[in-house]
Amino acid sequence: MTVPGVLGARLRQPRTYAWTAGSVLLLAFPFYLDRFWLQAGLFAMAAAIGAIGLNLLTGATGQLSMGHAFFLAVGAYGYCVLAGDGTTENGHDLTGLGLPGWLAAVLAVLLAGAAGGLFSPIASRLRGAYLGIATLALIFVGQHVLFNAGSLTGGFNGRAVPPLSLFGIDFDDTEVVVAAVPFHSSEKLWYAGLLALLLSGVFARGVLRGRPGRALNAVRDHRIAAGVMGVPVARYRAAVFVLSSMYAGLAGVLLALVFQRTVPEYFGMVLSLEYLAMIVIGGLGTVAGAVVGAAFVSLLPQVLTHYSDSLPLVSAPGTGGLAPGEASRYLYGAAVVAVVLFLPGGLTRPGGTVRAGGALARAKTSGEKK
User: Is 366 helix (H, G, I), strand (E, B) or coil?
Assistant: First the structure.
């Protein structure tokens, strides 16, 4: 079959129509949805970017990380320091370099990667529960720094987030009318978030489907055999830890821009556990699994909060009943148990399992070398 014939056959597939319809809907949402739903969608996008990075580390390579929230905090606060001005807020003289927003965002992602690089020698030598405990220490260190480094973080009350500026567009609440629809910060950030998620997903998909992905899966399935075959196990483990940290840094930047204020309490152990729940529910080792799991875990509390008046057993926060946040944790906790017991491949692969040795065999046949 010729190339045009193959292309035409792919265009006629139902999956192509579904992707096209979904893309059109996502592009049209800012014209029809209110601020609440746009912010909920932006939270899901940021969570999906961070979950993709964690899935590269835990799902594809088998390295358990409990400190993902630390690298989100590095990205969020790094952006605030790099883009912010030296002002006084809540009694703290805040440090700010006043860099352009786009440059601050790029440098914040690189800063998160550098933080991951400092920890990568440990990550390359530990595995399993030992690595999980070591990364858990990052949460305690990070929380101490966030609460006490007032000039950088603003202390307990956090600090305001400078708006992003890109291609002459300020992603703030300044009104811009597009097709008779007023665009504010949420509408503008929607497209920036979509672009960031698309690029993150495409890059991760390329990594997983290429030679690095086969090597990572081989390290996960049979670490010793992969080393015997010539796969540099320590190097790959360190590299994927840095890459995962950079994904978390990008997610932290987007979260900060959506929240418009960074609060230290948010970047705690609960956030790291939520990210682990995302990749387990969606499916380990896949980009689609990370996106689906992130949407489920991040949108559930938003939906329960929005409809708390009409849902049974759920009440508005502070009214004495079961709060939406608590209810959502019960639900996705039950979802994790159900997925582990009945859907080992996650929601995106209901009948799928990760076969030990399969990745190693593919790496062997492809001639993976050091």
Answer: coil
What is the per-residue pLDDT across 10-38, written as a single tens digit (0 to 9) for each? 556 677 777 788 888 888 889 888 889 99
| pTM for the whole structure | 0.88
Helical H segments across the chain, by residue range: 3-11, 14-28, 35-54, 68-83, 101-123, 129-148, 150-153, 185-209, 211-221, 223-228, 233-259, 269-282, 287-306, 324-342, 358-365
Q: Please write down the long-range contacts of 344-348, taking CB distance under 8 Å and 24 or more positions apart.
A: 345/283, 346/279, 346/280, 346/281, 346/282, 346/283, 346/284, 346/286, 346/289, 346/292, 346/293, 347/281, 347/282, 347/283, 347/289, 347/292, 347/293, 347/296, 348/282, 348/283, 348/286, 348/288, 348/289, 348/292
For residues 283 and 262, what is the distance between their CA atoms, to the nearest angstrom?
Answer: 30
- Do 252 and 310 meet the contact criterion of CB atoms below 8 Å apart? no
